[in-house]
Design a protein that fits this description.
Number of helices: 8
Shape: globular
Radius of gyration: 19 Å
Largest sheet: 6 strands, mixed
Protein name: Protein EXORDIUM-like 7
Order of helices and strands: HEHEEHHEEHEEEHEHHEEEEEEE
InterPro entries: EXORDIUM-like
Organism: Hibiscus sabdariffa (roselle)
Main location: secreted
Pfam families: Phi_1 (PF04674)
Mean pLDDT: 88
Strand order of the largest sheet: 1-8-9-6-3-4
Helix content: 10-25%
Structural class: alpha/beta
C-alpha cells in the first residue's frame, strides 16, 4: 500500500514538472515580443528524443464537459473532420496538417494523416464540478470511459481524447497561464496510458487572451491594430479562437505524445514544441504582433484554410522541419 502511495506521489510530481511546459500560453507578450520564426532560421534546435509519435490512424474521442451550444459543437466537429478530408479546396485544413505529418519516429514512420472522430461523450452534469484542476482532466476521461450510459471506449492502441470545457467551467490556470494543454493519462487514474488534450471555451471568460486575434487583450497596454480586430470566420470569436488552440494541441500531442519525442530545448520539463515556435503566426510576413497575410471572405471575415461543408478557419502555423521555419499552406512562397 505504501509503495502504491509513493508511486502515485511520484506521478503527481511528474505532472507538476510539466505544469507549464505543454500548454498554449495566454501571454500576449509572446505575440508581440517573442521571436517567432516566419523566416528560415538556424537558431532553432528542434530535436527528436526517440519517443513515439502518433503514426497509427487516430481515433479521436471528444468529451463535451458542461453545457454546450450545438452550433459551436458543429463548428468544432467540422474542423476535426477537415483534418483528413480531401474535399476542401486548397489551402485546406488537411494541407495544414501535412506539415505536422513531416515528423517521424525512430522507425521512419510519419505522423498519421487519418484522424477520425470516433466517439463523443456529453458530460452535461458537470461530473467533477465547475472548477477543475489540471490533474482532474484525467478523472473526467475516466468518468467518460466508465459511464453506465454510452461510455467512450478506452483505446490505448490509437485513441486520443480531447476534453473541451464550456464557458461556465473554470479550469486551473485557464485565462491566466494557459488556453489548452496536452499530456498523457496515468494508469492509476484511467487504467492505461493514453494521450489527451484539453481546451477551454474562452468566449465569456477571456476572449482577448484565448480567442486572439479575434479579440484584443484588455490589459495589453497597447491599442488594437489600426486595421481593426480580425473577424471570426464562423461567427463566434470564442469558438473560432478555440479552433486554433485545438489545432495547436493536436499538432503537439501528435508529435510529442509522451513528452519524449519532438521538442526544442535541453530541458525536458520545459519543452518548446512544434506549435509553440509559431505562436501568433497565421500567414507570410507575420511577427511582432502582426499575424501575417491571410484571406478575407465576401463578408470580411479572416481565414487562412478551407474546411469541409464550405467552412473556413484561421489556424496558427507550425514549425516545418524541412524548411526550418514556421509554415502554413497559405504561405506566399
Amino acid at each position: 500500500m505504501k509503495l502504491l502511495s509513493c508511486y502515485s506521489v511520484l506521478l503527481l510530481l511528474l505532472l507538476l514538472c510539466f505544469h507549464e511546459a505543454l500548454s498554449w500560453s495566454t501571454e500576449y507578450t509572446q505575440f508581440s515580443q517573442a521571436e517567432n520564426y516566419e523566416g528560415s532560421s538556424d537558431l532553432i534546435s528542434l530535436e527528436y528524443h526517440m519517443g513515439p509519435v502518433l503514426a497509427s490512424a487516430i481515433n479521436l474521442y471528444i468529451i463535451w464537459y458542461g453545457q454546450w451550444n450545438p452550433t459551436h459543437q458543429g463548428t468544432i466537429r467540422d474542423f476535426i473532420d477537415s483534418l483528413s478530408s480531401s474535399s476542401a479546396p486548397y489551402p485546406s485544413v488537411a494541407d495544414w496538417w501535412k506539415t505536422v505529418r513531416l515528423y517521424t519516429d525512430q522507425t521512419g514512420s510519419n505522423i498519421t494523416g487519418t484522424i477520425s472522430l470516433s466517439g463523443e461523450f456529453y458530460d452535461t452534469g458537470y461530473s467533477h464540478g465547475v472548477y477543475l484542476s489540471r490533474l482532474s482532466m484525467q478523472s473526467v476521461i475516466e468518468t467518460a470511459v466508465t459511464s453506465r450510459s454510452k461510455p467512450l471506449p478506452l483505446n490505448p492502441r490509437n485513441g486520443l481524447y480531447l476534453v473541451l470545457t464550456s464557458d461556465d467551467v473554470r479550469v486551473e490556470d485557464f485565462c491566466r497561464a494557459v488556453c489548452g494543454f496536452h499530456y498523457f493519462t496515468f494508469p492509476f487514474v484511467v487504467g492505461v496510458t493514453v494521450p489527451y488534450a484539453w481546451v477551454g471555451y474562452s468566449g465569456s471568460q477571456c476572449p482577448g487572451m484565448c480567442a486572439y486575434p479575434f479579440a484584443w487583450p484588455k490589459y495589453s497596454g497597447k491599442p488594437p491594430p489600426s486595421d481593426g480586430i480580425m473577424r471570426a470566420p464562423n461567427g463566434d470569436a470564442g469558438v473560432d479562437g478555440m479552433i486554433s488552440v485545438i489545432a495547436h494541441e493536436l499538432a503537439e500531442v501528435s508529435s510529442n505524445p509522451l513528452v519524449n519525442a519532438w521538442y526544442a530545448g535541453d530541458d525536458p520539463t520545459a519543452p518548446t514544441e512544434i506549435a509553440d515556435l509559431c505562436l501568433g503566426l497565421y500567414g507570410s510576413g507575420g511577427g511582432g504582433g502582426y499575424v501575417g497575410k491571410v484571406y478575407k471572405d465576401a463578408w470580411g471575415n479572416d481565414y487562412n484554410v478551407n474546411g469541409v461543408k464550405g467552412r473556413r478557419f484561421l489556424v496558427q502555423w507550425v514549425w516545418n522541419p524541412v524548411k526550418r521555419r514556421c509554415f502554413g499552406p497559405n504561405a506566399m512562397d
